[in-house]
Each structure stands twice: as C-alpha cells, then as structure tokens.
Amino acid sequence: MFSAPPVLARAWLRAIGWLETLQPLALLAARLYVARVFFLSGLTKIQDWETTLALFADEYQVPLLPPELAAYAGTAGELVLPVLLALGLAGRFGAMGLFVLNIVAVLSLQEIADAALQQHIFWGSLLAGLVLWGPGNWSVDRFVAPRFLKVSSSGSATR
Question: Within a 10 A sphere around the Cβ of 80, how many other Cβ atoms?
C-alpha cells in the first residue's frame, strides 16, 4: 500500500481543512442561486396569470393534475419554497420540494431545448446536494432545529 510522505500528508490535510471552512459559503451560494431562479419564475407567473393558465392548459402537460390546479400548485411552490431554501428554514424540505418541482417541469414540457435541459440538470444537482447535506451552518435550521429536536440516547428524535 502506498503511503504519502508526512509533508504531503500534512499539506493535504491542511488543504482539506481549508476547503471545509468554505462549505457553509458554498451551501449558502447554492441555496441563494437556486432560490432566485425559482422565485423569479414564480413572480413571472403571477404577473400575467391568464398567460400562466393558458401555458398550463396548452403547453405544460403536468401529470396527474388538472391544468388550473397545476398552475396554482406550481406557482405557489415557486414562491414559497425558495424563501424557505434561501433562509435555510426547513431547508431540506424546501430543497426537496424544488427538486420535485424541477423534475415535474422537465417532464411536463413536450419539447425542451438542450440548453434548458442542462440548466434543469444543474439546478437539480444543486438541489440534490442540499437535500443530502442540508442547508449548512449559515442557515436558520442550524439555530432553530437544536431547540426543537432533542435526540434521545436510543437515537430517536423527541420534542
């Protein structure tokens, strides 16, 4: 088995430590970026509601939902979930909700340009990371959750 020289091993550990200090900033940047994209989309929808309803009736083919309900649900999700995500309040919930909304958006379009698909994949990747690792230390969750959830010695959460 290969063993790194001690100087390289120490340098590598220092580099990892430095990179880990950037993690809260990276998670915050991901949260704010994705939240902005979806929130602005929601604002666009409410600015011209008649066009939004027409798009959901004619162009977006949302599975399992009637077009008007899909328009209301999608727009509400695009306006509420990004706020939660940006604040990091119920951050994983917000990220998961937007992840699902992102998938539904891609599946609902009959035709999607390659560039648009790549954007959705990028947003989905960021959201998946936020679901897996949470909103980070620079979030409301970091300060609120410990006060509401106490973990017993058996590993179960209690209130």
Answer: 15
DSSP string spanning 72-131? HHHHHHHHHHHHHHHHTTTHHHHHHHHHHHHHHHHHHBS---HHHHHHHHHHHHHHHHHH
Determine the pLDDT at residue 104. 96
Low-confidence ranges of the chain (pLDDT < 50): none
Q: Which of 51, 101, 94 is nearest to 73 (CA)?
A: 101
Task: Give the per-residue pLDDT at 153.
Answer: 55
Give me the residue spans of the domains in the chain: 23-158
Residue 152's pLDDT is: 54
CA 20 to chain centre: 20
Spatial CB neighbours of 90, under 8 Å, sequence gap ≥ 6:
84, 141
Among 147, 132, 149, which residue's Cα sits nearest to residue 91? 132
Query: Which pLDDT score, from 0 to 100, does residue 5 have?
Result: 86
With 0-12 / 13-18 / 19 or more C-beta atoms within 10 angstroms meaning exposed / middle / buried, residue 112 is middle
The CA distance from 25 to 102, in Å, is: 24
Pairing of strands 150-151, 157-158: antiparallel
User: CA–CA separation, 136 vs 142, rounded Å?
Assistant: 7
Prediction pTM value: 0.87
